[in-house]
């Protein structure tokens, strides 16, 4: 099946600085893909290129095989901080959405979704809580019945319960449709529960990309005797190593065959994997840059 999003040599420059560079990726159709990376890595830049809000300075992005600008009717976008017209009520926004998207708009779906979540339809959205506003933005984006839904840090300002509700709504809505989702976030633990595809950006470049289950399957944490630089049976690559006097802990990509039994193997979490790959590329990721809720 045709990928939902493709990028080839995609780049965007502001002045002399590349915000995104040599970006090559493919998000298969039907996935919920997480776009992660430290502040300033290029996530918003990539989303804006894919939604056609900005033009590339190099390469190209394609949405279901076509230029983003030819696919606007098929793309839903929730921008960072869920900007909505704050003086309008949710009901008015639903009506307005219908007028702006005559061809595909599903008013009943938006109303049902908002009613199910207990969002008051007649209050200006500026007076709703952050979580409720995020849900309104999501309901509006879904009412467009997009084939591709892009969300730029939709849960960043929400409390843990509101985050969970938002992600559950998103997953439920996507399961009912064939929508592909690309969602940027710093909240790795939340993404592990809901996303099945991963793109890691760092310093304007794609650092890692692939299906989450395959990435988790092909990486392991190994604990064993202090290691030197010798190769280890069954290990294709050491992504990150930390050592005490006697012991080494390695995050590795597995190779062929079983891993040397001298080492104890542990499964990795998405958070381990992302942080190890970011560290491998030499970024010092301050713990504060990654809000990882318990
Ligand atoms: N309009 C702009 N003018 C100049 N530089 C910009 C502009 N937009 C983004 N940049 C720069 O491009 C780089 C990538 O920014 P971008 O917003 O894409 O990062 P991000 O990964 O979304 O960051 P965050 O997680 O903080 O939202 C940063 O260095 C940023 O300063």
Automatic annotation (TrEMBL):
<dbReference type="InterPro" id="IPR051782">
    <property type="entry name" value="ABC_Transporter_VariousFunc"/>
</dbReference>
<feature type="domain" description="ABC transporter">
    <location>
        <begin position="5"/>
        <end position="228"/>
    </location>
</feature>
<dbReference type="GO" id="GO:0016887">
    <property type="term" value="F:ATP hydrolysis activity"/>
</dbReference>
<dbReference type="InterPro" id="IPR003593">
    <property type="entry name" value="AAA+_ATPase"/>
</dbReference>
<dbReference type="InterPro" id="IPR027417">
    <property type="entry name" value="P-loop_NTPase"/>
</dbReference>
<dbReference type="InterPro" id="IPR003439">
    <property type="entry name" value="ABC_transporter-like_ATP-bd"/>
</dbReference>
<protein>
    <submittedName>
        <fullName>ABC transporter ATP-binding protein</fullName>
    </submittedName>
</protein>
<dbReference type="GO" id="GO:0005524">
    <property type="term" value="F:ATP binding"/>
</dbReference>
<keyword id="KW-0547">Nucleotide-binding</keyword>
<keyword id="KW-0067">ATP-binding</keyword>
<dbReference type="Pfam" id="PF00005">
    <property type="entry name" value="ABC_tran"/>
</dbReference>
<keyword id="KW-0813">Transport</keyword>
């Amino acid at each position: 099946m045709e990928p939902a999003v493709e990028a080839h040599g995609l780049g965007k420059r502001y002045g002399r600085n590349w915000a995104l560079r040599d970006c090559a990726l493919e998000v298969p159709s039907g996935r919920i893909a997480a776009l992660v990376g430290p502040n300033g890595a290029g996530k918003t830049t990539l989303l804006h290129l894919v939604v056609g809000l900005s033009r590339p300075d190099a390469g190209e992005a394609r949405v279901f095989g076509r230029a983003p600008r030819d696919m606007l009717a098929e793309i839903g976008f929730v921008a960072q901080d869920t900007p909505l017209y704050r003086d309008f009520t949710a009901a008015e926004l639903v009506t307005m959405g219908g007028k702006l998207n005559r061809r595909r708009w599903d008013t009943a779906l938006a109303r049902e979704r908002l009613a199910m979540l207990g969002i008051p339809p007649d209050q200006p959205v500026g007076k709703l809580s952050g979580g409720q506003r995020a849900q309104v933005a999501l309901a509006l984006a879904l009412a467009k019945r997009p084939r591709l839904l892009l969300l730029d840090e939709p849960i960043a300002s929400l409390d843990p319960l509101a985050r969970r509700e938002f992600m559950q709504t998103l997953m439920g809505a996507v399961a009912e449709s064939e929508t592909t989702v690309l969602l940027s976030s710093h909240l790795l633990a939340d993404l592990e529960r809901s996303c099945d595809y991963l793109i890691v950006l760092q310093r304007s470049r794609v650092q890692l990309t692939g299906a989450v289950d395959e990435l988790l399957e092909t990486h392991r944490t190994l604990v064993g005797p202090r290691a030197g630089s010798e190769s280890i049976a069954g290990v294709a690559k050491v992504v990150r190593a930390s050592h005490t006097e006697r012991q080494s802990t390695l995050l590795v990509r597995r190779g062929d065959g079983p891993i040397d039994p001298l080492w104890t193997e542990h499964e990795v979490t998405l958070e381990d994997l992302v942080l190890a790959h970011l560290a491998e590329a030499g970024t010092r990721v301050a713990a504060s840059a990654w809000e990882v809720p318990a």
